Amino acid sequence: MAQKPKILAFAGSLREHSYSKRIVKTAIKGAEAAGAEVTYIDLRDYPMPIYNADDHEQNGFDANALKLQKLLNEHDGLLIASPEYNASLSAALKNTIDWTSRKSDEFKLGEVFKGKVGAIMTESPGAFGGLRCLGHLRDVLTSGGICVFGVTKLPAATSEFLPTRTPSNIIAPMPIKQPVSIWQPCKVTRCPSVTSSSIIVGCVFRET
Predict the structure, then answer these.
(1) Paired sense of beta strands 183-185 and 152-154, if any
(2) N or C terminus: which one in the chain shows less Cβ crowding within 10 Å?
(3) 181 CB contacts (<8 Å, ≥6 apart)?
(4) Are strands 183-185 and 205-207 parallel, antiparallel or unpaired?
């Protein structure tokens, strides 16, 4: 039996009830349906200072950044949802990438990203659906050696997500009014630019 691809999923927003967390949790359902084993994490559980090379040199590598490096190293691919802040990715997400791409006592520079594959997504109440941030996020990830595909945006997010804010929805995917007619899960896809062992659910959700 083929080994299931291990996917690490997270959102670049620190807000408790963010749209980014809702959309990535919805994407997880598609990844699991396509045969992936998915681990979801919340970046709020891994607080880190703004990356400063001087602080890194004087105080050592941040403990939470090392925890994230270990998680990244254990997975084949990534599902990342980012909010759009000033037409770019969030500071929390960029700082996470900055820290985890650095050399630590256990990993070389960029080691935890190289050869992985990823699907990125965003959402916004506006008509653009946060699309402008994805180009920046793709550039950042590909510069680290990640093969990025499966770019997804969700415009008019306030109308797609039901306004439910119970504690259970922080863990479970937030409901979408018409999940079948709007999104369809895709099959597991191999990325031709990386080794065949690195697989992810390509284009986790596709507009129909």
Answers:
(1) unpaired
(2) N
(3) 208
(4) antiparallel
Distance of CA 30 to CAs 59, 85, 100, 139, 204, Å? 41, 26, 27, 25, 6
Q: Which two tokens stand for residue 109?
A: 């520079």
Structure tokens that stand for 137 in this block: 């996020």
Structural element, H or E, at residue 73: helix 63-74
DSSP assigned state of 161: B
Average pLDDT per block of 10 residues along the chain, 208 residues long: 85 89 89 92 97 96 98 95 88 96 96 93 69 86 86 48 37 33 34 33 35
Q: Report CA dihedral (18, 21, 22, 28) to the nearest 10 degrees.
A: 180
- Tell me which DSSP letter residue 43 carries: G
Q: How far apart are the first and last CA of the chain?
A: 32
Tokens representing residue 185 in the block = 């899960």
Q: With respect to CATH, is domain 6-207 assigned 3.40.50.300?
A: no
Per-position DSSP letters for 103-137, written without gaps between them: --SSS-TTTTTTT-EEEEEEE-SSTTTTHHHHHHH
Furthest C-alpha separation in the chain: 54
Q: Which pLDDT score, from 0 to 100, does residue 134 have?
A: 85
